[in-house]
Design goal:
The protein has one helix and 20 strands. By secondary structure, it is mainly beta. The strands form five sheets. It has a five-stranded mixed beta sheet, with no helix packed on it. Strands 1-3-7-6 form a four-stranded antiparallel beta sheet, with no helix packed on it. The chain has a four-stranded antiparallel beta sheet with strand order 10-12-16-15, with no helix packed on it. Strand 4 (67-70) and strand 5 (73-74) form a beta hairpin. It is rod-shaped, with a radius of gyration of 33 Å. The N and C termini lie far apart (122 Å).
């Protein structure tokens, strides 16, 4: 007959109390085995000569990118995903024309991909040929339409007072708004349209009744 004793086992108790540590999972970095980072495409692949727009680089093995060159000028890196598939940058200013874009990380430098800098045309000078209606109450609040060209993003003044602009059609042929209050006793006031391309007077102005 044996005598059994329940003696405390410090090692077993410690093992039970210990919280198991789970391994930290790292996102897999996708790359071509035996090669450095690869650049596949740029979106968009063209932009203004002033730079500063947002361009996303797509590729493989781009994680940890430290430098992106547009030609020989360095872009500003604003983000990248941990899988090494994308890098987001703001291009530097450059002269019009194509440049080669490359990205560099600790593994190496990518193949070049072409990006084209485009000289943007200045906005058109506005032309105003008529306003409908040509008159309205001095209290204002009259819906009006100015007919012309290049009227996109325009503001309108009746005399020295700004009108409420509702918008323009995509072609810039029509601009819609609401007249402000006019002078006491009524009268004719000049109407001027101002856009990023310049200013234009509406022939005949507007008559407050």
């Amino acid at each position: 007959m044996c005598t059994c004793t329940n003696q405390p086992n410090p090692q077993a108790a410690q093992a039970l109390l210990s919280t198991p540590q789970l391994p930290q999972l790292q996102p897999p970095q996708i790359s071509f085995p035996g090669f450095g980072p690869v650049l596949i495409a740029l979106l968009p692949n063209s932009g203004p000569v002033d730079g500063g727009n947002t361009v996303t680089l797509f590729g493989l093995g781009l994680a940890g990118t430290t430098s992106v060159l547009f030609g020989d000028q360095e872009a500003t890196i604003v983000g990248q995903d941990p899988f090494g598939l994308t890098v987001t940058v703001q291009p530097p200013p450059q002269d019009p024309g194509p440049v080669q874009v490359t990205a560099t990380n600790a593994v190496g430098t990518t193949n070049p991909v072409t990006y084209v800098y485009v000289e943007q045309a200045p906005p058109p000078e506005p032309q105003a040929t008529a306003i409908i209606p040509i008159s309205g109450p001095s209290a204002g609040g009259t819906l009006f339409t100015i007919i012309g060209s290049g009227l996109q993003n325009g503001s309108v003044t009746f005399g020295d007072t700004s009108a409420t602009v509702l918008g323009a059609d995509p072609s810039g042929t029509f601009l819609f708004g609401i007249t402000p209050a006019g002078p006491d006793g009524g009268g004719n006031v000049p109407v001027e349209v101002t856009t990023p391309g310049g200013s234009a007077d509406v022939p005949g102005g507007f008559t407050y009744l």
